[in-house]
Amino acid sequence: MTDVSNDTFSLAGREYRSRLLVGTGKYKDMDETRAAIEASGAEIVTIAVRRTNIGQNKGEPNILDVLPPDRFTILPNTAGCYDQKTAVRTCKLARELLDGHTLVKLEVLGDEKTLFPDVIQTLAAAEELVKDGFDVMVYTNDDPIVAKRLEEIGCIAVMPLAAPIGSGLGIRNKLNIMTIVENAKVPILVDAGVGTASDAAVAMELGCDGVLMNTAIAAARDPVLMASAMRKAIEAGREAFLAGRMPAKRFASASSPLDGLFF
């Protein structure tokens, strides 16, 4: 039997047990944010620096008061950035506010309707940030060629979308995700498009190292219960991947063999 008691993955030299990464937007208040994230079991929490106060707005509620950095790994992200310059500047602001913190999630969007990544701007921003000493986790499309290029630039994790951000459509292109995973030497984490627990399980069954989600939890009727469901789905999908599924067959195969039976 495969031992999963020490099944971890590494980011920027640190080991993590939870393969569920969660966002902090769209909750009704700070209390719900904290309760859902606690239920998720996540160790890494991503925060949109341009939309959330992490100290840049004095006198306003600071999300770090309910999600303290000594308990969670804070992953500042560049949500809402549409060009290389803005994304890089946002990462530098986060580094300053978080006392030299270099782990960031880079996303450079192409347009406001689809929220698909601008691959050209993403590649340029990733290269600049890596050269400046950042540990870059990068949101991208599900193109295996682009994913490999981002790895070669020096990104510590590549995060292909499953479907458009906030759509809840689940994984639209399993073959591309599988190809990215098979060719990668860095962690691959599905980012965007997960809608429910089965989507998260599928991502893990494909061999992904983890899943990052926000809307799937925050927009659920009961976010705290959904966070708990996602936690279990990630664990089940990971165990199923490690166990190795049975081959799919076109026709039925009896669970109990007929050989040796007396008639």
Structure description:
- The chain has 263 residues and is α/β, with parallel strands linked by helices.
- The protein has 8 helices and 10 strands.
- The strands form 3 sheets. It has a 5-stranded parallel β-sheet.
- Strand 9, helix 6 and strand 10 form a beta-alpha-beta unit.
- Helix 1 runs parallel beside helix 8, helix 2 runs parallel beside helix 3 and helix 6 runs parallel beside helix 8.
- The radius of gyration is 20 Å and the shape is globular.
Topology summary:
Elements: E1 9-11, E2 14-16, E3 20-23, H1 30-40, E4 44-48, E5 73-77, H2 84-97, E6 103-106, H3 119-131, E7 135-140, H4 144-153, E8 157-160, H5 174-183, E9 189-191, H6 197-205, E10 210-213, H7 215-218, H8 223-243
Parallel strand pairs: 3-4, 3-10, 4-5, 6-7, 7-8, 9-10
Antiparallel strand pairs: 1-2
